[in-house]
Amino acid sequence: MLVVGARGMAGADFVKRWPGAAGVDLPEADITDPESCRRVIGETGPRVVVNCAAATGVDWCEAHRDEAMQVNAEGAGNLARAAGEAGALIVQLSTDYVFDGASAGEYSEDDAPNPLCVYAESKLEGEMAVRAATPTHLIVRVGWLFGHADKSFVRAMLRRADDADPVRVIDDQVGCPTYSYDVAGAIGRLVDAGARGTYHFTNAGACTRFEMARTVFERAGLDTARLVAIESGELGWVATRPARVVLSTAKYRAATGAAPRPWHAAVDDALERDGVKIVRS
Question: Catalytic pick from 107, 119, 181, 199?
């Protein structure tokens, strides 16, 4: 297995979760360069190529549309094409943001996407580029991804706990926290099951960012009184985010026979892996 984008949050955790997986990143693997994609796949000879390389800054993408499209859309297609030419399965990591958040229910893989921002649009274009490049593909949409990189929401909350000022966290957007280690396990199960096409995977349950932050504080034994719930409009974001996206994992469960664990349990695992002593009620 080859993980492209191995120094990013998802890619780094995937390599840790999959013993024997090879990991590459810039400059040795540049997905915006078709020849670079062919070279790195030719040199490693993988059976499965997992694309974790992406421009993920939502507001950055809004201000840099061309660059976002080059990486998230054209780059995804380049890598998928090279994988298909080599007879390898391409696994493309995508996002819940491809949906507009207008539904009060769960989004299935058959629901029509409607991206609200450039980041989401570029990731949806990436999905389409992968589908067009090779039939041997697996697209996995995830929710609010967290892991062990410094920019992970869980780690960010722990850092902010030391600030003198109150910790302001939005409480008007709902999503499904998704632990990168669990995504790696889910992809492994889908690959072993011979799955192809598009699947959703998140940890079980939904919450707001404020509720997730409160859980992190409680589990780490921190003072939750320092948390302040705010509305997203107070943050001055440039890009529009969906207000509520809950992904259905029924198709994943049917394909693998496995059920995602609750997001609270995944947060506990992430904290413990980072050396945090968990406080359980």
Answer: 119
